[in-house]
Amino acid sequence: MTGIRKVKTAEEVESALAKLLAEYEKKPVAAIGENLLGFSRFDELEADRAAFYNTYKAGYNPRALATVLKRMEREEKEEMGKDYDWYQFIVLLFGSHPPTPQRSMAFSWESNFVKMPPKDNSYQSAAFNAMKARIAKLPK
To answer: What pTM was computed for the model?
Structure first.
């Protein structure tokens, strides 16, 4: 949209992003088209995938990620009531983020490719426990 193909410094990055934002403001159809194509939704799903594997490789139980999303979904359903399904349809078409149920399902899908720890398993780390002890000693 701006013709900028390469940047070399942090200042050039900031300038290029400012120019891109200005172009989006001039051409709202471009932003709508990007939402319809779902580029940012794919980025969000890829970030979720990375979070799953980083959590797993660090020795923690990645089920917690899906649990949080399921809790968010439950709260959204309670808040919106009968409008929830319509809202999810609109988010699917026009949202910048994937619908919460899709993100939760993606975590479940990734769990098929690794040896998952038991459901209620938690990882105990000496470093984490030491950090918690230091925090507990801080004045409140």
So the answer is: 0.59
